[in-house]
Amino acid sequence: MYYFIVNPNSCCGRGKIIWDKLERTLNDSGVEYQAYLTEKPGDAKIFAKNLTEGCKESNVIIAVGGDGTVNEILDGYSMCSCVTLGYIPAGSGNDLARSLKLPKNPIRCLNKILHPKYYKLMDYGVLSYGDSEISHRRFMVSSGIGMDAAVCHNLLYSRTKGLLHRLRIGKLAYLLVGVRQLISAKSCKGYIVLNGVQKIEFNHAYFISTHIHPYEGGGFKFAPDADFEDGKLSVCVMNNRKKSKLICVLLNSLMGKKSVNKGIRFYTCEEIHIHMDRPMAVHVDGESCFCQNDVEIRCISKKLRMIV
Ligand SMILES: Nc1ncnc2c1ncn2[C@@H]1O[C@H](COP(=O)(O)OP(=O)(O)OP(=O)(O)O)[C@@H](O)[C@H]1O
């Protein structure tokens, strides 16, 4: 059975337009399916939980929306061998779709899911945070602390984002908010501990971003070497006294190039502890996890079966 979890509001209503097309194709083809349309944040997680918990039959859960919708589904998902995930991108950033090289045409994506050639067992990440009560949040693409997360926080509440998406120049929203954050960003002292053993200190960190997939923020390739099947996190640390170096890093990432300047460092690990001397914004797949001083992030290897 195919279960569609649809965010009709993704990309300012594009989700609904795409879903209407998919629905017509599904009805014409006679495929048996059920659709669950979200009405608010959190719905996709509940639908995914109810559809996968204790599941004994072979089911395909198909996300229709952006990276935030996939994130919610993953967070509510019960991992079991009979459930497979499919994805039809309908968001504004679509970093997961970019990394998986999914077709831009939603009907082609649907056909791929209905007639799959390949399944992949994919890694995902888990972020843990909180002092007295520890919260855990799964992520599919990336999780970060600092300036990149502050951009995501701002975009979640940005009115300009809606307007620019309606004008079909949504990428500009990321750039505009990014530039605003760049002007106000302040670096912070902190350290990371890789796999519980290797401690590395930073005096001027702007952001630390951990990746399962290479892109975030709608096309910034912060972790060009990220591989969703290697059981590892790719970590990108932007640490430099000169803020101007950040501009080069952001431009290189936007063009898909790996930055080699002094300010940026890359690491790989299975788990990482990140400490910042003051609370900084944290995100998973572009969704806010508030401001934190300390977070733990680990990679769960090859547990998610997905049609690609
Ligand atoms: N019906 C709904 N109305 C409003 N918000 C919703 C609804 N359903 C889900 N959401 C929330 O919308 C947010 C963004 O959704 P989604 O990621 O699908 O789209 P997007 O932001 O346009 O795409 P991307 O994340 O790829 O940039 C998520 O935080 C999700 O919780």
Protein model, in words:
This is YegS/Rv2252/BmrU family lipid kinase. It comes from Lacrimispora xylanisolvens. One of its GO terms (biological process) is phospholipid biosynthetic process. InterPro entries: ATP-NAD_kinase_N, Diacylglycerol/lipid_kinase, Diacylglycerol_kinase_cat_dom, Lipid_Phosphate_FormReg, NAD/diacylglycerol_kinase_sf, YegS/DAGK_C. Belongs to the diacylglycerol/lipid kinase family. The structure is a single chain. With 308 residues, the protein is of the alpha+beta class. It folds into 2 domains: 2-117, Probable inorganic polyphosphate/atp-NAD kinase, domain 1 (Rossmann fold), CATH 3.40.50; 125-301, Sandwich (Tumour Suppressor Smad4), CATH 2.60.200. It is built from 9 helices and 15 strands. The strands form 3 sheets. Strands 5, 6, 7, 8, 9, 12, 13, 14 and 15 form a 9-stranded antiparallel sheet that branches. A 4-stranded parallel sheet has the order 2-1-3-4, sandwiched between helices. A hairpin with a 2-residue loop joins strand 14 (271-284) and strand 15 (287-307). Helix 7 (159-166) runs antiparallel to helix 8 (171-184). It is globular and about 60 Å long. It binds adenosine-5'-triphosphate. Adenosine-5'-triphosphate is lined by residues 7-11, 38-41, 43, 65-69, 72, 91-94, 286-287.
